[in-house]
Amino acid sequence: MSVNIRALSPELQLIAKQELHEESSQMPQMLEQFREWIKKSPHLKSRIDDQFLIMFLRGCKYSLERAKQKLDMYYTVRTHAPELVGKRDGLDARTLEILRLGVMIPISKSQPGGPLIIVVRPGSYDAEKFHIEEIIRVFMLINDLLLIENDNITVAGSLSIIDLKNVTLGHLLQMQPSIIKKMTMLSQEGSPIRQKGIHYVNTPPGFDKVFNIFVSFMNEKMKKRVFVHGNDMESLFKSGIPKDILPKEYGGECETIDAIVQHWEQKIKDNYERLVEDAKVYKVDERKRIGKTKNPENLFGVDGTFRKLEID
What we know:
Elements: H1 10-18, H2 27-39, E1 44-45, H3 50-59, H4 64-80, H5 93-101, E2 104-106, E3 116-120, H6 132-149, H7 151-155, E4 158-163, H8 169-174, H9 177-187, E5 195-201, H10 207-217, H11 220-223, E6 226-228, H12 233-238, H13 257-270, H14 272-280, E7 283-284, H15 296-300
Parallel strand pairs: 3-4, 4-5, 5-6
Antiparallel strand pairs: 1-7, 2-3
């Protein structure tokens, strides 16, 4: 029985074997077992192609039970937080405007076998004009394409640099606990991506209150992978992130941010039909779920301590 997936680079093959316990001889059987479980889960409408399913097995180091849970949560969070995914009826002018601001920049020049580096620049959007939910919807377009096409992110993982330059009080106040909880669930429980680290730079006054809420929703493994560098960019580079692979605006040798943005705008336009299908067709139907149903309250309920963010 053959498997229809992309061949990995030699560097990623080594990581898949050593860190993820990937054995090509076991793939066909595990994928078939995975598919059969999906077919027998009446509440779950999921893609079942090899390339899609293999990223969940890789993200869970080939634990089939964990991969099942991750896939279920992947669709459950998206179904119950539609405001973070969007209707995706068309590439409207507002979505394109956000995309062109370069709030999320995936770096194409990854190290061989290294994690995909993503630079996030929330200060590049006007908090009086746009809301964080709109920004996240654009993030999800990029994220979904990365999952489809990028093997570094599903094998070696993802590393985020959160550049808070030009972030205002208005930006921080948009980061309400309910939004943060949904974002962390999307990235932890509902994503097959191996999160290798989050690095904050150019942190503004008031950042600590938002940061403390983020950390409170993180699992213990992720808490150990979060680093705050303040305004010390050299501290960021000393942490192991090669300066040369970053965009030119950060002193690196990669393309400019504008060139990366143009590349992603075209990529999203070229793949938009699939992105629409992912949002509209594939989801969960709680009426058909066997066992305890899930809803926004039991998924995203926020502790009273963090119900509302207030910054003096």
